[in-house]
Every structure is written in structure tokens, then in C-alpha cells.
From TrEMBL:
Protein name: Flagellar basal-body rod protein FlgF
GO CC, alphabetical: bacterial-type flagellum basal body, rod
Taxonomic lineage: Bacteria, Pseudomonadati, Pseudomonadota, Alphaproteobacteria, Acetobacterales
Residue ranges of domain Flagellar basal body rod protein N-terminal in the record: 5-35
Gene that this polypeptide is encoded by: flgF
Source domain of life: Bacteria
UniProt keyword terms in alphabetical order: Bacterial flagellum, Cell projection, Cilium, Flagellum
Annotated PROSITE patterns: FLAGELLA_BB_ROD (PS00588)
Subunit structure, interactors included: The basal body constitutes a major portion of the flagellar organelle and consists of five rings (E,L,P,S, and M) mounted on a central rod. The rod consists of about 26 subunits of FlgG in the distal portion, and FlgB, FlgC and FlgF are thought to build up the proximal portion of the rod with about 6 subunits each.
Amino acid sequence: MENALYVGLSQQMVLERQMEMVANNIANLNTTAFKGERPVFQEYVMQAGQNKPVSFVLDYGVSRDSRAGVLTPTDSPFDVAMNGDGWFSVQTPNGVRYTRNGHFTMDPDGRMVTREGYALLDDGGGEITIDQPELGTPVIGRDGTVAQGTNQIGRVGVFTFANDQQLRAAGDSLYEAPAGAAPTAANDTAQVVQGMLEGSNVQPVVEMTRMIDLQRRYQTMQNLMTSDHDLQRTAIQRLGRVNQA
């Protein structure tokens, strides 16, 4: 009976983890370029004796929904969206990070930066600086080329990975590439669209439906565990009366 309790507890922990992720998805409905997440689980089989294995559920990792969000026009020439498979790169105090959030501004030094002040990098790893405002508003081409009039400033770096799921979330819509996951230039897999931002790919109706289903499953498991506990208590009480007799 204790095995049933432990299995039930492992299931409840899994359901709690799922609810946490659904809640996080809902909270990021309006976050630029946010990707919905799902937990990944694996089965753990323990030999309980007498050749009767007991199966538990373990939290294994996180899977991101890689589908693109809807592109929405903005009034800023520094906003850019990624149309296709690719990532922007930015320089942070902790090293290069990758993002699909193209909400950039120009800092006092003329650099294109994120709202946190991280510099957008070009295809060679250098900062993109627009230091001649007299030349007018910069134009960013589909290939990432940044120009003011006839003056080409640089080219926005667009990168891809063999497996995007390897990227680790680093906060502020940023992702860190693990050792060995070298980025490559996205030649024809993505286009840079100026004056647009990618929205979250979270579907609110789907997430709310999933949350309701998870809550019901959690309550069902709680009821089963309560029933199992009551059975154990009843069995102990009866054994006690038999021993007293």
C-alpha cells in the first residue's frame, strides 16, 4: 500500500510541475517572442521485491514550442522580427546570449540595444552602431543589412542551431547556448523584418483548458490517495482488534 502512496505522490509532483508551466505560459501571453513550454517526463522503474516493479514518474526536462508567433507592426524603425528559423545575438555581461525578441532601441552611444542595454551584434560578433543621425532613419533589409542612405553600417547577425531545444533559458527572453552547440549563420532560413515584432505563440484557450484538466486530475489523484490512506487505517484498526482478542 505504501507503494501506491509513493506513486501517487510522484504523480502529484508531476501535475504540479505541469500546472506551474501552464501558469507561466499564461503569464507570458503578451511577452514578445515568448515560446510556450511543456515539461518532459520519464519513467523510473524500481524493483519492489518478488519481481514486482513499481513505476514512478520523474521530471526530466523542458520542451519549447518552436512555432513562430504572429508578427505585429510597430512604429519604431529599431523593432525587428525574425521571419523563419533564426536567432538574434546580444552581448551581455555574462557573454553572448540569443533571443527572438527584436524590441531594440538606440542608446546614447548610437548602439542598437535591448531594453536591458545589451548590444545587438552583427554577423561578425561586433556591435551595431548608428552614430550619424544626420543621415536619417536607418533601414534594415530582409537580409539584415543596416543602412543610412547609401552608407551601409553593418548586418544584423542571424544564427541557427542544430537543435534549438538545447538552448537554456537565461531570463529576459534570452537563451544561452551550451558548450558544443555552436551557432551557424542563417543563410536562407530566416528574414529580418523591420518595424515588426513577433508575438507570443501561447494559445490562451488551449492553456486555460489544460489548466482545468490538470486541476481535475490533481484532485482525482488526491481523492485516490485519501481512499488508500483510509483503507490502511481501517486495516490497522481491524488488526489491532484481532490482536486484542
